[in-house]
């Protein structure tokens, strides 16, 4: 049961991040088309009117009015809010998958027993820090609810926007604890191979071709 819930949370986390990124990208794309489409159609209409090309001026003016009829004043604000939520969930995802950048040169020089306790202490410090941020964020959101403040364009309650801080921080705290427990049991940390591309398999070089000199042997430690 615990494993099923963990897998469901992992899947939900990934779906939310992918949905937020895709939606924000689509909104930005439409907003850019709207901005440049209105500008270009207006310029074409003015030029065609000056040159006496009535049909082109009329058509470009209609296109301009069509673009102007779009109300995308909310697009920028919505994308900012979406990226805030995506960043908080992405931070928790980074802890779970081990994609966060870390300076471990000194840690790797320690002997195995010392290295084990230093890494475990670091993970617990991360969990404590994110818990504190989540607690203060919850308090801030509670006071934001009392103010009734809304955003300027979308006019949504600002506490919904700032709710990303406690939710993302508590999720990140949970991920730190999850990684710490797994490390305490197995001694291994999540790691991502930067050279691996999902969906692409390694292709063996054609016969007669050799790997360049100095390339690490297959299976060699990085």
What can be said about this structure in brief?
The protein has 2 domains: 1-72, no CATH class; 83-189. The protein has 7 helices and no strands.
Structure, explained:
The chain is built from 7 helices and no strands. It has 222 residues and is an all-alpha fold. It has 2 domains: 1-72, no CATH class; 83-189. The longest helix has 50 residues, at 2-51. The radius of gyration is 26 Å and the shape is elongated.
Q: Could you give the count of β-strands?
A: 0
Count of alpha/pi helices: 7
The end-to-end span amounts to 37 Å
Number of domains: 2
What proportion of the residues is helical, as a percent range?
over 70%
- The overall pLDDT average reads 84
Short key terms for the protein model shown above:
single chain, 222 residues, mainly alpha, 2 domains, 7 helices, disordered C terminus
List the helices and strands and how they pair.
Blueprint: H1 2-51, H2 54-68, H3 75-97, H4 105-108, H5 112-147, H6 158-162, H7 164-186
Helix pairs in contact: 1-2, 1-3, 3-7, 5-7
